[in-house]
Design a protein that fits this description.
The chain is mainly alpha-helical. The chain is built from six helices and four strands; from the N terminus they run ββαααβαααβ. The strands form two sheets. Strands 1-2 form a two-stranded antiparallel sheet. It has a two-stranded antiparallel ribbon with strand order 3-4.
Length: 145
Amino acid sequence: MTRSDSAGSGKDLYAGETSSYPLTGPGSVAGFGPRLGAFLIDGLLADLLAVIVDGGFHNSGRHTLASYVGFLLIEIVFVAVAAQTPGMKLLGIAVVRADGSGRAALRWVLFRTLLLAVIAPAVIVDASGRAMHDRAAGTVMLRTR
């Protein structure tokens, strides 16, 4: 996959090139598909948590709020502790510091999750393939396999 350089140099960039990540394989920037898949898996887990907390499925604002809060808690806890949510683990991606020095600090995980709660930053990516909430938090989602 190539993308045109926004500076107009005519040079083709692949996702991750501007940040020195490999084009493919472990350590490359995770594409939109795996990120979306992980989001959907984690969303289903959050909904299951909401069903458990609510004592069953209820088509109500309370259930929606419980699912939303559950999703954000899954993000915070799992990314802070293991660098990946269950959905990310299943799809072979993880959140790490963009400078390559390991897992993100809790304050950056919280900031990233706050931005993710707005949803829009997760679908806006730059030439390197990083979503806006990851760029703002100094993190990147990389393939682990």
